[in-house]
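Weekly modeling sync, notes
Attendees: S.R. (lead), two postdocs, one rotation student

Agenda item 3: backlog of single-chain predictions. S.R. asked that every request posted to the team notebook include the full sequence so nobody has to chase files. The rotation student volunteered to paste the first one in as an example of the format we agreed on. Action items at the bottom.

Example entry:
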Amino acid sequence: MEDNNSNYLLIAKIVGTHSLNGTFRVYSYAESLSVFKPDSLILMRNTKGSEKIHVVNWAKSLKKTVLLSLKGISTISQAEALIGSELFISKADLPEPEGGTYYWFDIIGLSVFTIDNEYIGSLESIIQTGGNDVFVVKDGDKEILIPGIESVVLSIDFNRKIMTVDLPDGL
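Predicted structure, as returned to the notebook:
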């Protein structure tokens, strides 16, 4: 998910507290805990819209949530007041993606063309499946699902905001 401020990326939402020492239960949108590394900065936007930067003490997985401790929040009453807040990180703090991979926010919105330079539509969203991602490309009411695999996605030109694809037969 991407925030309106394009420098920040929504990574989690505070859904509850854990223990009396100000620890949060957080629903994370991130694939790993690496976005919550100790001493990293988190932008917190509370339910009233005000924002404050916090520093991470520690984080660990707990079932389907993450336990998160932030410096300066040490009581349950401080933590309870922040339930519902959204947590963001600076895009500049993200690690570089490995070769041939991209962050979703980098490719959503690209114009998609066939190898014959035929416009298919704009990449609107991505569906995560077990094997590969599926790109949802829309042009008005017309929608096409494109597998996000190397044999189909031939190139991405970030300067021109274009993805070129070789559609399999039947698409």
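Discussion: group reviewed the output briefly. Residues 76-80 form the longest helix (5 residues).
Action items: rotation student to repeat for the remaining queue; S.R. to check formatting next week.
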